[in-house]
Amino acid sequence: MKTGYFRSFLTFKILFLMAFFSHQLLFGKIKLPDLVSDKMVLQRDVELKIWGWADQGENITIRFRNETYNTSPDKNGKWSVQLKPQKAGGPFVMEINEITIRDILVGDVWLASGQSNMETPIARLTDRFPEINVSDFNKIRYFKVPTQNNVESVQENIAPGGKWFTGTASEVMNWTAFAYFYALEAYEHTKIPQGMLVSSLGGSAIQSWVSQEHLKDFPNDLIDKQALSALNSSKLDKGRNLWNQKDFNDADWQKAKVPGKWKDNGIQAKGTVWFRKNFELPASMDGKFARLYLGVMVDSDSVFVNGKFVGATSYTYPPRKYDIPGGILKQGKNTIAIQLTSNFGNGEFVADKPYKIVGDGVVVDLTGEWKYNIGRDMSKDEDYKSKLKNLRNTPSGLYNGMIYPIRDYKVRGAIWYQGESNAGQSENYAGLLKNLIENWREVFQWEQMPFLLVQLPNFMEKTNDPNVPSGWAGIREAQFKTSQTVPYTAMSVNYDLGEWNDIHPLNKKDMAKRLFLAARKLVYGEKLVSSGPVFKSMKVENSTVILSFDNVGKGLKSRNGALKHFAIAGSDKKFVWAEAKIKGNTVVVSSNEIKNPVAVRYAWSNNPEEANLENAEGLLASPFRTDDW
């Protein structure tokens, strides 16, 4: 009875596996990007593109919301269809031939990018915001683009492993913090599904998110394609899977003596050198087992006899003793090939060691003349690397691997939270950010694509000297100038939300709230005050400076007492802390130490947490300076 049950179960299991793999093969005719999958959010009110890859000759049929679309792959196997604009709602189902995609929402999709503060895991915030643990928001969704850094060329698909998650408690721990709070803020205000498409990487510089074409204004960030190609080629062993073959023609190779040192044989290389030697065997050894002795070699080796691998050693010291299995050796001519690697160029067949083949009473002496050729010479790498010093910043690599592949996924706007890694080169940041925005608008084919900028918060210890240089202030200024000069951009100010001793501040909730306030005006067209006072102009009267502002809302005010963090300087360019007072919609700045002022700075430091100029709506003024020193 038990035996019959087991046989029935085994038969059922085999049939099930056959059906499963047959089903998988059908699915295998069509490949979709991971973005096009269960729980995705599609952008409302715009034409949508659904794309993928398929075998030649495959007909693709898409059914979505009572509409049918048909297409077929091009010569490269890629296909796409345009879906008509969709109203917000869901969940919906999409069928693509045999594939069914479920739980699709239509709403607003936000492309969120940058470095580690866009990457901060939501799990870090649960103590501060315990409501995360009971999150119950199915209408907000999250997709993290897997890391893919490719400096050589743009990629057609993102790296595998991406997946959409909901904002419910069982899945919310897969989110990053800023994305969660922004999606929640947007959903609670609009009551429309929100999708966060997060393409970011901790520690990344802005240059890595910009194409090479849009880095032409910055020669130091352009990649020497010839040097890169040469470097990649130099990493390849020219002899791999070729010079080990028995019948390979090595007539033009150089000669070397074994045993012996590379340098004594005139071999000037760091890397891999191939050695070959022919030897004769009598009929008695045809197909027989034998033992191969190759003394000691420096450093690592792989050994082939008649094209067959027989052994390898990964470091210098062990004696090389390899078995040659039966069936490899032949009567007459045989060939041994050795791939010997020494990364420091001190390769060697150590003297006074045995180099021979022993088998069935036959001993073949392998010392004497060999042929050699250089497979890879790493010493040339340094020349190429000297021309590629900027590769440490991986210019364009993340654009190629994490922005270009998602260019067809329609979004409502972009969010950019980055700058920490560029704080030491703030003088170029405004130009780089402008070019990034132009680049992304071009690749997403949307000239008016909204960009929301998160200005860097306060960080590091406070200083009592207003003359201390500040890379972070320089980045904030670049972000501010971009928001004022590049159309369809907006920025939130956050220098009161950071933590002096943590570059990853936890209050992402208020940061997201402020940024969405900017989105309400820029993206949704609401009439409201969405930012703090914006410096407009200065006028010197006697020993005082009068500063004028835009975006004053219902009026200027100070937060928590007298105005702080204003500094003033004369022609000697030495700043001192100043007294500042609000007068109508202006701020009057002065100091007893400066009789003839020429410049003013506000909140110009790494950590200007105490700076407190705001409008009546409670929004802080962005840091600024009137000089360009």
Automatic annotation (TrEMBL):
<protein>
    <submittedName>
        <fullName>Sialate O-acetylesterase</fullName>
        <ecNumber>3.1.1.53</ecNumber>
    </submittedName>
</protein>
<dbReference type="InterPro" id="IPR036514">
    <property type="entry name" value="SGNH_hydro_sf"/>
</dbReference>
<dbReference type="InterPro" id="IPR008979">
    <property type="entry name" value="Galactose-bd-like_sf"/>
</dbReference>
<dbReference type="InterPro" id="IPR025300">
    <property type="entry name" value="BetaGal_jelly_roll_dom"/>
</dbReference>
<dbReference type="InterPro" id="IPR005181">
    <property type="entry name" value="SASA"/>
</dbReference>
<dbReference type="Pfam" id="PF03629">
    <property type="entry name" value="SASA"/>
</dbReference>
<dbReference type="Pfam" id="PF13364">
    <property type="entry name" value="BetaGal_ABD2"/>
</dbReference>
<dbReference type="InterPro" id="IPR039329">
    <property type="entry name" value="SIAE"/>
</dbReference>
<dbReference type="GO" id="GO:0001681">
    <property type="term" value="F:sialate O-acetylesterase activity"/>
</dbReference>
<feature type="domain" description="Sialate O-acetylesterase">
    <location>
        <begin position="397"/>
        <end position="465"/>
    </location>
</feature>
<feature type="domain" description="Beta-galactosidase jelly roll">
    <location>
        <begin position="250"/>
        <end position="340"/>
    </location>
</feature>
<keyword id="KW-0378">Hydrolase</keyword>
<keyword id="KW-0326">Glycosidase</keyword>
